Amino acid sequence: MSILVLAEHDNQSLKPVTLSVIAAAKAIGADVTLLVAGHQCGEVAEQAAQVVGVQKVLLADAPAYAHQLAENVSQLLLEQAQGCSHVLAAATTTGKNVLPRVAALLGVNQVSDVLAIEAPNRFKRAIYAGNAIAQVESDESVQVLTIRGTAFDPVAATGNSATIERVDSVFESADVSFSHEALAKSDRPELTAASIVVSGGRGLGNGENFDMLYKVADKLGAAVGASRAAVDAGYVPNDMQVGQTGKLVAPELYIAVGISGAIQHLAGMKDSKVIVAINKDEEAPIFQVADYGLVADLFEAVPELENAIS
Amino acid sequence: MKLLVAVKRVIDYNVKVRVKADRSDVDLANVKMALNPFCEIAVEEAVRLKEQGVASEVVVVSIGGKACQEQLRTALALGADRAIQVEAPDSPDALSVARILAKIAETEQPGLILLGKQAIDSDNNQTGQMLAALLNRPQATFASEVKVEGEHLLVTREVDGGLQTLKLTLPAVVTTDLRLNEPRYASLPNIMKAKKKPLEVKTAEDLGVTVGSKIRLLGVEPPAERSAGIKVGSVAELVEKLRNEAKVIA
């Protein structure tokens, strides 16, 4: 069995979620090859070669791969997947965009957002917004899987020296091109990798009031998330959304402020180790999953919290 | 330009599903069903493109048992022009759905195909991408803005770091994110009118697609229950518990 893993990166550094995907690959067993597709991403390949558990790094460096467009990267994966038993990527927006395209080109089904490996062809995954865990067995000739990063403990980022092999094939679709992007800038830890997450909901009332959460987050070294209601109301950008259709997080500590706890929000955070809810409505469903609940006006409690932890 | 929109009948998003006692699957008996929220957004976007004069016709298609005609009628009431039901066993896998949609696209020749980014039951997030691959057409997933400019499409996508805009050559496949638009409500007159709109029934066999799945559901279990927590009386007590009991802050 040989396993091909698509590396998640931004052309400069390997994203931590890749380490969790490698952990899932090791749970399957066999040889793990990590494919770094990007542009001017030699540094990423160097980092990838140090990741424990990686046998070989494939580096495909071309302008066509700069933004990891699905049309181009899927063709590259299709070529490199020949003879592989498994093709894996993180269940991030990149992995979700590219991998089903690869699966269809291979003529197989994909298993999405895998949270446990039971056997090389038997997996567990959440369905219905995390309200049920399905165990599935796939008889496909190639297993194409996206991996839920928070469900696997990351392998060590250093301590290995895998070989780096260049891939020269360039696939470039004439039908799609990158136009521009608007990426959010933040000094705080990345939401999906943070050990503490402070999230705000509709209860915050407006975007300015999120400043209260940023202050608490900065003292805790935490990332800041949001419910769909807060994103839809325009308080914060969409990339902060935690939930079934946003990001899935599983930090040590999740502090939900002014969030009622709708099914779709819980789907994104209920695997957190400790959940704290601050809400003035004591009937809010969030209290049913919170380890520590505080029924209070968040406008008083949050500044008080900030003072208490300094 | 003709638009094709794929819609799925799923459990209503407000319903909390339960796992069957024998753990074979989730219990869908007597549960309220609805149009998948992401599909509703896809229909709305198609109707808006028609209202802008960009699109000439909106065709909706759904795959499944006869019951999914209900969701097709909903889409017609929202402004779609005609509907196609592809009769197939319940819960076909994503690849079968993509293959059926590809066959429909071959006959209908739409300039743009719109789908939701994921169905809230299976949470797969695959079909649009698979369809684009089978048709060898460009894709724009997780769209929060769609602009048609002549032969091209400018699509803003919701990605992990923020927003990304791509330029695609039509025909193309787009999957919708939640923030693309706010779907309208169907008015009673439109619901009445929708009953008279054409609804064609085909079968997967007619289209030459064998619906099966090489992914078998072995069983379903409820997620691990969280043990009930406690209510604290003050911020000071909360911080004390987090420090000394849970030991999650310094």
From TrEMBL, chain A:
Which cofactors does this protein require? Answer: FAD
Q: Which keywords describe this protein according to UniProt?
A: Electron transport, FAD, Flavoprotein, Transport
GO biological-process terms attached to the record: fatty acid beta-oxidation using acyl-CoA dehydrogenase
Pfam families, alphabetized:
ETF, ETF_alpha
Give the co-factor note.
Binds 1 FAD per dimer.
Give the superkingdom in one word. Answer: Bacteria
- Flavoprotein among keywords: yes
**Protein family per UniProt:** Belongs to the ETF alpha-subunit/FixB family.
What does the record give as the function of this protein?
Answer: The electron transfer flavoprotein serves as a specific electron acceptor for other dehydrogenases. It transfers the electrons to the main respiratory chain via ETF-ubiquinone oxidoreductase (ETF dehydrogenase).
The subunit structure is: Heterodimer of an alpha and a beta subunit.
Protein name, entry field: Electron transfer flavoprotein subunit alpha
User: Which source organism does the UniProt entry give?
Assistant: Nitrincola tibetensis
TrEMBL record, chain B:
Question: Which keywords annotate this record?
Answer: Electron transport, Transport
Q: Which GO terms describe its biological process?
A: carboxylic acid catabolic process
Name the cofactor(s) required for activity, per the record.
Answer: AMP
Q: Which domain of life is it from?
A: Bacteria
What the entry lists under InterPro entries is as follows: ET-Flavoprotein_bsu_CS, ETF_a/b_N, ETF_b, ETF_beta_N, Rossmann-like_a/b/a_fold
Which SMART domains does UniProt cross-reference here? ETF (SM00893)
- UniProt entry tagged with the keyword Electron transport: yes
Entry's Gene Ontology molecular function annotations: electron transfer activity
The record's annotation in SUPFAM superfamilies points to: Adenine nucleotide alpha hydrolases-like
| Residue ranges annotated for the Electron transfer flavoprotein alpha/beta-subunit N-terminal domain, each copy included | 23-211
A Pfam family it matches:
ETF
Which family, according to the similarity comment?
Belongs to the ETF beta-subunit/FixA family.
Briefly state the protein's biological role.
The electron transfer flavoprotein serves as a specific electron acceptor for other dehydrogenases. It transfers the electrons to the main respiratory chain via ETF-ubiquinone oxidoreductase (ETF dehydrogenase).
Complexes and interactors? Heterodimer of an alpha and a beta subunit.
Q: What's the protein name?
A: Electron transfer flavoprotein subunit beta
